[in-house]
Amino acid sequence: MAEVDFSASIAQAALNVARSARARAILLYADALAGLEAFDRKNRGPTDLILLLRDAEDRARAASVTDQLLEVPPFELTRMGQIKMGVLLAFSNRLLAPGERFVFCVGPPGKPIDTLMVMQVGEEYELVHSVDQPRLTEHIRRVVFQRVLSLALQLAVEGREGKPVGAIFVIGSYRELEKFCQQMIINPFKGYPERERNILHDHMAETVKEFATIDGAFIIKGNGVIVSAGTMLRPSVAGQRIPQGLGARHAVAASITASAKCLSITVSESNGTVRVWRRGQMITEIERAHASPQGPGPQLLDHAMG
Predict the structure, then answer these.
(1) pTM (2 decimals)?
(2) CA dist., res. 157 & res. 165, Å (int)
(3) What SS3 class is residue 27?
(4) Where are the domains of the chain?
(5) Which CATH class is domain 7-120?
(6) At 104, which helix (H) or strand (E)?
(7) 142-278 falls under which CATH superfamily?
(8) Which of 22, 78, 269, 288 could form a disulfide with 166 if both were Cys (CB 3.0 to 4.6 A apart)?
């Protein structure tokens, strides 16, 4: 049976729902809809439009209808994974605030939109638990958080040399983190000038991926400087609200964020799920799309994480 493209109808429905729900914004991946003019200012009124860009070629087309543009890692995620990624970046860039309502249009990876969702930031724990959290990047540069999140997703999707990789990235105040850290191996970043070991430098991506295969955590300052790899964490406070079935890597990632001013990002070796932890609890998880015999499928998340 031939696929039917409902994207134009869903776009119109999104505008109607946004008006009736008094939504702060409509979020949409720019490459999922050919006709972005449906969302221009005269059609959407006071509702903001946040466009997510997986490809730099979409920027010119997207800029014609809005100036609220966010670049996202170009990986295939489940529908809910796409939503979580978009909301997390919008929240960290202060385009959405706790309690605000928004409309999200999304579709299967690489295909037109076929789903419309209305949500409120922080109201649904499986989205982004943030209402009782301080600003997401309180002690971290936003660009650093986004770079580490992108690297975590690369590891989740690609692994290393064809093998799955698990990892922990801890980002924040090293002055507070230092007392909870112990090296398991000789620190491969020790002795290099800070300007040469900043996560924001393009040449560091392959280095980080290589050292992700060793046990232990990456410790990264809020400005992006990598302090160490292969680091054992010994937090003083236990984490909370850790979903059942998650192992020691996730427990320590939660606990370190309860012990110091930091944020941690984990990559699950078993299924490639990326999770973000703050103040002792998971604030969101992002699942990649898994291939099926017919190609990538939607594989909606249907479980709560509370």
Answers:
(1) 0.81
(2) 9
(3) strand
(4) 7-120, 142-278
(5) alpha beta
(6) strand 101-106
(7) DNA integrity scanning protein, DisA, N-terminal domain (3.40.1700.10)
(8) 269
